[in-house]
Amino acid sequence: MTALTDMADLTIEDGIAIITIDNPPVNALSQGVRQGIKDGVEQCLADDAVQAVVLICAGRTFIAGADITEFGGPPKEPGLHATLDDMENASKPIIAAIHGTALGGGLETALCCHFRVCDAGARFGLPEVNLGLLPGAGGTQRLPRVVGAEKALQMMTSGAQIGADEALENGLVEDIVDGELRAGAIAFARKIIDENIPLTKIRDREEKLQSARDNPTLFNDFRSHIARKTRGFLAPEYNIQCIEAAVNLPFDEGMAVERKLFMELMSGPQSAAQQYFFFAERQAAKIPDVPADTPEIPINKVGVIGAGTMGGGISMNMANVGIPVEIIETQQEALDRGLGVIRMNYANTAAKGRISAEDVETRCNLINGSLDMYNLADCDLIIEAVFENMELKKEIFQKLDSIAKPGAILASNTSALDINEIASVTRRPESVIGLHFFSPANVMKLLEIVRGDVTGKDVIKSCMSFAKRIRKTAVLVGVCPGFVGNRILFPRQTQAQALILEGALPHEVDKVLFDFGLPMGAFQMSDLAGLDIGWNRETSNSETIRDVLCEAGRRGQKTGAGYYDYDEKRNPSPSSRVEQIILQFSEKAGIERREISEDEMLERCIYPMINEGAKILEEGIAIRASDIDVTWVYGYGWPVYRGGPMHYADSIGLDAIVATMRKYQEQTGDDFWEPAPLMVRLAEEGKGFKDL
Ligand code: T1G
What we know:
Blueprint: E1 2-5, E2 8-13, E3 16-21, H1 31-46, E4 52-57, H2 80-88, E5 94-98, E6 101-103, H3 105-111, E7 115-118, E8 123-125, H4 139-147, H5 149-158, E9 162-163, H6 164-169, E10 175-176, H7 181-194, H8 210-213, H9 218-226, H10 235-248, H11 251-266, H12 269-283, E11 302-305, H13 309-320, E12 325-328, H14 332-351, H15 357-366, E13 367-370, E14 381-384, H16 390-403, E15 409-412, H17 419-423, E16 432-437, E17 446-451, H18 457-469, E18 473-477, H19 485-502, H20 506-516, H21 522-529, H22 545-551, E19 564-566, E20 572-574, H23 576-588, H24 598-618, H25 625-636, H26 645-652, H27 654-668, H28 677-684
């Protein structure tokens, strides 16, 4: 064995050379890997004893892409293109032996080998679009030549992975090796030599492009098909343009298009934000004061109290990954309704072909309903998901304390109430934690985990890993009203209300937020949640616009009217009735309505969110600024191509935000606009939240 670099070595066995990459954790194409491949291929080509080359990786996966940590830094030789050209033009067969995930530059490297074999668990993808990029090492030109333009469109605009069987079916691999991959790849190489199989280059293949050439509407049809899902993103369109180039231009011209568009994206703000978010998401899983060797509480059975919308959705997460659930209700009718909704949701998913009818049965059978809380006695984790009322929650936790087994985790799905106060009614406050799911709980990726003052580190660690197990992205936060997500939402809603009093209308404010990239605006969100949350008919006295709307029976989407009117398909349209109410309110408040610019609307909605984020960091409610961004991207649909509120703030410059807030403070005389001391300090130091 010869060490090529500190990340690659070369072994020659009976004429077969094996280049082994070893760059944990995911064999990214760092400089040492690129150099190793380049030197290895050169040595193999020069060595007459070598008849074929196998490229394989040590550790848990084949190359998972370019090294994202090198992006933005000075380019280090050798470049990937040069290395890949050497491989494709090699006069001796090169076989890629793939296990784990061949992603991005990793798949592009494999596509420059003459043959690809893998094990049964291998997965393949070009997920660059998730980083606001496109495959920049020939993948946009070679993948369509192997799997066809149609499949390449799906893979490159979604970033989704395909498995070994599909890869074999599509011609992405020549064989799925039984048994040990290395031995299988060597045997495959020997077969190539013995049978004198000619070497072909993917760049020279054209047959798989014909169907696209025969289908002039393919690309535009595909564009409209993904338009809604990719609204605001640049990268999906750029990926499509590269595949169009692959279909319509000679290979080298297509490569030039790829290069140009890749550099445009790489130097743009969207990719910077999405690269930032890639690491932010992984950082969120790291809890500085919870050591990695903290013991975890095994969670093999979960209890859920409340079979309403949240309780049902929460239970589905467990059943989706095979964990039995005991769901508790107080009335049989409510229990039947809750279980019925769960079955209906699964049936809808099966109708869309995402799960099988058998899966529906398996998952429904994992969810057992009852009216007896004592059925929770053997649960490892119990999640309370009842109506947002402190007294009711305390009553439940007091009872749970006497029922739950020692060591069980007692969690509340509250979206705003004080976890410490809930814990205080138990004799085991260290076992109490907040698990705040977002609606619909079986869909939304975010899980806001709320640690109380005495929540045990084992409980925290167990819940963080449990989140990953149920395919959620967890963010750990401290206790305060609204925790992180909702606390940041409150000031935005406050300003949205102020804007419609001063001159804007709900649909105008919502358009600004929608165009900014949020899934919906402030008023549509209120209508979706229901305007009567926390509203009391008895005490309501038309003090706010919301009061008047609720008093008029306009409680939001569920009543077909709120700030908007809704048709039978729940499509919103501006309401002249609401406009009247708003004008009356302005007049009553003595406010002279004025024209408000879209920029002002955006600043007044977003900057208070950022400011609240700064306060949250000052108070230590969030561990890091990027956790706030993960919360808002996965919990509230903040566009990931803007990174999140805190990253967005850094992209604007904190000094500009502080100055603008001061301007509004002066204009309104309202200390609502007082910038948080942390933000003022960072602005003065010319720093951003990323520097914390
Ligand atoms: N570069 C650098 N570090 C990476 C990395 C990469 N490509 N992929 C993962 N890591 C780190 C990650 O930060 C974490 O570090 C650790 O590895 C484990 O990752 C020219 C331009 C492979 C499916 O987009 O999707 O190629 O937090 O926690 O859940 O066309 O990582 O432990 O310090 O995610 O098992 C294209 C990105 C790059 C794939 C494994 N490739 N990675 O998931 O572990 S662009 C990607 C993943 C490109 C070319 C272009 C996943 C994974 P730490 P993890 P996991």
